[in-house]
Specification:
33% of the residues lie in helices and 35% in strands. It is globular. The protein has four helices and five strands. This is NirD/YgiW/YdeI family stress tolerance protein.
Length: 121
């Protein structure tokens, strides 16, 4: 019984710690709403910084990856298929995206998109 209790407590602590590190989408969207940035500034931001970008979805590259431009530069967006389909967005559309900066060691910084919306001009 003592081993079982220790195991349950250990797993519970690990889950709580993981939850503390991961931002939920609602919190990320609230933070991103306060942080409108341009593509040219993204590379100076820390990993997992919540941001909002407004610009044009240039083209679909592959799977979940899309090229985005706001006139100050290009950046790769990682958009889950479910979010993409729900948005009704196509290449060439002006969009607003909210997500977080995702830095990498061996590839360029991109944005992990949590929300995308088509803008009407």
């Amino acid at each position: 019984m003592n081993k079982r209790l220790k195991a349950v407590i250990g797993v519970s602590l690990m889950l709580c710690a993981a939850g503390a590190w991961a931002k939920d989408d609602r919190a990320l969207l609230q933070e991103a709403a306060k942080n409108h940035v341009q593509v040219s500034a993204v590379k100076q931001l820390k990993d997992e910084t919540a941001v909002t970008l407004t610009g044009t979805l240039v083209k679909h590259l592959n799977q979940d990856h899309y090229e985005f431009s706001d006139g100050t530069g290009l950046i790769l967006l990682d958009i889950d298929d479910d979010d993409w389909k729900a948005s009704g967005v196509q290449a060439g559309d002006k969009v607003r995206v909210a997500g977080e900066v995702d830095t990498h060691r061996y590839k360029p910084t991109d944005i992990e998109v949590v929300k995308i919306e088509k803008l009407t001009e």
